[in-house]
Amino acid sequence: MKSALTIAGSDSSGGAGIQADIKTMCANHVFATSAITALTAQNTLGVTGIMDVTAEFLAKQLDAVFTDIYPDAVKIGMVSSSDLIEMIAKKLKEYKAENIVVDPVMVATSGARLISEDAIETLKKELLPLATLITPNIPEAEVLSEMEITDEASMVEAAKKISENFGCATLVKGGHQINDANDLLYSNISYVWFKGKRINNSNTHGTGCTLSSAIASNLAKGYDLDTSVKRAKDYISGALGAMLDLGKGSGPMDHSFAIDNEYTTEYEE
Ligand SMILES: Nc1ncnc2c1ncn2[C@@H]1O[C@H](COP(=O)(O)OP(=O)(O)OP(=O)(O)O)[C@@H](O)[C@H]1O
Ligand SMILES: Cc1ncc(CO)c(N)n1
């Protein structure tokens, strides 16, 4: 069985972060290992507390995983401080990690800030150049490209800028669009749209974490980038379309849809 490592924060409500990543990897038939960057006290209404691990303890987790169950892909999510980002970059280089998907998490669905201002600079300098793929949502793509995104043409322009600046592929996610949910993949000087029908479901807690973990899972299984994004887009559409409604705010998605219905057949290896 292939394995994927998630380096991310814990979400006590189970909808985003490490918990979403592990559920997604499992449902995509990949063994999930983890290195936790922070604990968050969080539910569908918001984040009430964040406690970072130390860089030394993060390094211990990464050493434990890389020296034993070497990952076929790595997904990186919430990393709030510069010293943690620097440690991750150091370890990814040391262990020659491959298939690295970076979800540049900045703000939670509920609006809470999950990265410090100075850490954004470290992310750009140290981590993004190591990525195979970066998966910003529209506000994150605006920060990384230093331009405004107002339509599909500016999504393409921003994705191109990010790819050129950091030397990797970029998927600008369209979850924040008004009418559509179209994601744009820019890689090797060309681009492709992954068109999604917008699902009328306000329970979108953890969509970004889930999508990036599904992409990492498919890369771990050996699919090329385009196919991995296509399969991940199908997965997120299924998980959102299952219309789970838990909690008092923007609730989590249903990962068991992939186990319960014919979707399993498509994803069986
Ligand atoms: N209502 C929706 N209907 C269909 N697809 C959606 C919807 N909302 C988000 N998506 C899809 O979910 C994926 C994640 O996109 P989104 O832009 O929501 O990421 P994000 O903002 O990083 O997520 P998060 O809320 O976890 O931070 C994308 O593939 C996007 O197209
Ligand atoms: C731990 C964690 N990571 C990422 C997100 C982004 O959705 C979140 N809300 N919580």
From TrEMBL:
<dbReference type="InterPro" id="IPR013749">
    <property type="entry name" value="PM/HMP-P_kinase-1"/>
</dbReference>
<feature type="domain" description="Pyridoxamine kinase/Phosphomethylpyrimidine kinase">
    <location>
        <begin position="11"/>
        <end position="254"/>
    </location>
</feature>
<protein>
    <recommendedName>
        <fullName>Hydroxymethylpyrimidine/phosphomethylpyrimidine kinase</fullName>
        <ecNumber>2.7.1.49</ecNumber>
        <ecNumber>2.7.4.7</ecNumber>
    </recommendedName>
</protein>
<dbReference type="GO" id="GO:0005829">
    <property type="term" value="C:cytosol"/>
</dbReference>
<comment type="pathway">
    <text>Cofactor biosynthesis; thiamine diphosphate biosynthesis; 4-amino-2-methyl-5-diphosphomethylpyrimidine from 5-amino-1-(5-phospho-D-ribosyl)imidazole: step 2/3.</text>
</comment>
<dbReference type="Pfam" id="PF08543">
    <property type="entry name" value="Phos_pyr_kin"/>
</dbReference>
<keyword id="KW-0784">Thiamine biosynthesis</keyword>
<keyword id="KW-0067">ATP-binding</keyword>
<dbReference type="GO" id="GO:0009228">
    <property type="term" value="P:thiamine biosynthetic process"/>
</dbReference>
<dbReference type="InterPro" id="IPR004399">
    <property type="entry name" value="HMP/HMP-P_kinase_dom"/>
</dbReference>
<comment type="pathway">
    <text>Cofactor biosynthesis; thiamine diphosphate biosynthesis; 4-amino-2-methyl-5-diphosphomethylpyrimidine from 5-amino-1-(5-phospho-D-ribosyl)imidazole: step 3/3.</text>
</comment>
<keyword id="KW-0808">Transferase</keyword>
<keyword id="KW-0547">Nucleotide-binding</keyword>
<dbReference type="InterPro" id="IPR029056">
    <property type="entry name" value="Ribokinase-like"/>
</dbReference>
<keyword id="KW-0418">Kinase</keyword>
<dbReference type="GO" id="GO:0005524">
    <property type="term" value="F:ATP binding"/>
</dbReference>
<dbReference type="GO" id="GO:0008902">
    <property type="term" value="F:hydroxymethylpyrimidine kinase activity"/>
</dbReference>
<dbReference type="GO" id="GO:0008972">
    <property type="term" value="F:phosphomethylpyrimidine kinase activity"/>
</dbReference>
<comment type="similarity">
    <text>Belongs to the ThiD family.</text>
</comment>
